[in-house]
Amino acid sequence: xxxxxxxxxxxxxxxxxxxxxxxxxxxxxxxxxxxxxxxxxxxxxxxxxxxxxxxxxxxxxxxxxxxxxxxxxxxxxxxxxxxxxxxxxxxxxxxxxxxxxxxxxxxxxxxxxxxxxxxxxxxxxxxxxxxxxxxxxxxxxxxxxxxxxxxxxxxxxxxxxxxxxxxxxxxxxxxxxxxxxxxxxxxxxxxxxxxxxxxxxxxxxxx
Length: 207
Fold this sequence. Notes:
By secondary structure, the chain is α+β, with helices and mostly antiparallel strands. The chain is 41% helix and 16% strand. It has helices spanning 9-20, 34-52, 138-157, 160-184, 186-189, 197-201, and strands at residues 60-64, 78-81, 86-92, 105-109, 112-117, 123-128. The strands form two sheets. Strands 1-6-3 form a three-stranded antiparallel sheet, with helices on one face. The longest helix is centred in the last third of the chain and has 25 residues, at 160-184. The radius of gyration is 19 Å and the shape is elongated. 33% of the residues are buried.
């Protein structure tokens, strides 16, 4: 993995704004800067969307789940509380989504996302909401900044053609980043089936 030289959200946003051809920001948190506010309105959604699109090596972690205070109304199943930074399942008790039995499923209980299973204990690997740009792969940063640029372009410039061009560019860069992530992490990811439409649509090999 080629770690990016980008160290902050401000730098990611400025990469996006540069592609649009608009003024850069001095600080992501600047309340007086319209571009900073627009970036904040769009950044988290773009980041989470991209993180969910693949099993990024820099965004996978482990957790032992605790049971929820309530139990299903019937059956032998348990509710296990998923981490607050959970975005996508990698494996549960060493089972991958493609081969998980039907009794593994994710639901919302009392506004809490839970894993439902009859297992007596659960350890998961999952894609988490990595909010530290300094840990991102360089290709991921490029894909994220272009995805953000595509989200911002029409609002900032009113140019629908530019927005569409950036959206096409974003799809291409996301696909490239996913492809390289797989190539560089085959030993780690070889048992995991990724379901990215971007990979399938461009003929890349997925696991």
